[in-house]
Amino acid sequence: MPAIPAKGRTVVLVMALALCTFAASSAQAASQSGTPAARSATSGIPGVVDPAADLGRHVPGPQSTWFDSIYFTSSVKANGQDFGLQVHTRIIPNRDQAAYRWTFSVINKTTGWYKDYAAMVEPKDYRWSQGKLDIKAPGFSWTGDSARQSVQVETPWGSLDVQLAPTGPAMNYASTGVFHLVDGVPNYQFALPEMRTSGTLVLDGKKHKIAGTSWLDRQWGEMPPSLTRWTWMNFSMPNGDKVALWDTVGTKSKDSWATVLRPDGSYEVVDVEPLAPGVSRRWTSPATGQTYPTRWRIRIPSLHSELDVQVTGNPDQEIETPDGSGYLEATVAFTGKYKGKKVRGENYVEMTGEWK
């Protein structure tokens, strides 16, 4: 598809928002909140999501694929070893089966050890309060606010008890917090991309005192039925920029783009070259038979950026889903150039769909 300039993309988003009553009410809530949503200093466009209020559960829309999701990934250290953590809970309240679910995965990037756990929860046993972050389910607790959070997870093979505290501004995806995921279907999403993380991780009876950083993502809306494949990545750059990348494929449209949040809270929304031509080292899951790339070449022309990204630790970081398929939730490392300067770092990739 032809490149879309960042300013043109933002104007299209604002026109769409003008038709959305939810956007107007959320913007008003943000102005009244004690924790203001991040804004684009270059465009002056206000966010339509509020990190203080929108951590709570939303009133669902009528669509069968309408969802609420909250998720974080972590890079932490303990006893001279590097770990990647993923915690996610999502609800699809209009679905009859597999509607309430939480997952937990751990990768020891030093040794390659990996395990994940997925729990399906009965609606009567799951609570996510509206207007505040208060989630409880068997083996799972996530409480707090936009300033401090506490998460506890219990599984047959391990547990997690961590505290998260943001140390930088919130990121509104596409600078406003609403965008078309694919084929004209709007989604709402913001991140707390830098959260100081500390606590205890227990694996097979061994306790680890952990410390590091996390990236939290909060997303809700309709999951487009025509969405066939997506890739999401997060990057924390040495200069303090936070970059969230989406590469989506639907039956009617494709899109590759990124939101860049600068340390001062200002934004860039930029086009990314489609990922498919730059993937390599495909891996096929023995559990689901799905194929995923494990290496990517990412080019962001307007930022003079080219990054080589590859899965770290173990390629088998797939989380299986109730329908027999799965998705990759893997730790990765990147090297290359960002804004013309050499960079390196660690991040996560989430991938769904088939990549044969």
- Determine the CATH topology: AttH-like fold
Q: Report how far the terminal alpha carbons are from each other.
A: 22 Å
Q: Give, in order, the helices and strands.
A: HHEEEEEEEEEEEEEEEEEEEEEEEEE
Can you identify the CATH superfamily? AttH-like domain
CA radius of gyration is 19 Å
Helix fraction bin: under 10%
Domain tally: 1
Mean pLDDT over the residues? 88
CATH class: Mainly Beta
Largest sheet: 13 strands, antiparallel
Give me the number of helical elements. 2
Uncertain regions spanning at least 5 consecutive residues:
1-43
**Corresponding CATH architecture:** Beta Barrel
Q: Could you say which structural class the secondary elements and strand pairing correspond to?
A: mainly beta
Identify the overall geometry. globular
Number of strands: 25
Would you mind describing this structure in some detail?
- By secondary structure, the protein is mostly beta strands.
- The chain has one domain: AttH-like domain (AttH-like fold).
- Strands 1, 2, 3, 4, 5, 6, 7, 8, 9, 10, 11, 12 and 13 form a 13-stranded antiparallel β-sheet that branches. Strands 14, 15, 16, 17, 18, 21, 22, 23, 24 and 25 form a 10-stranded antiparallel β-sheet that branches. Strands 19-20 form a two-stranded antiparallel ribbon.
- β15 and β16 form a beta hairpin.
- The chain is globular and about 50 Å long.
- The two termini are 22 Å apart.
- Keywords: Signal.
- This is AttH domain-containing protein.
- It comes from Sinosporangium siamense.
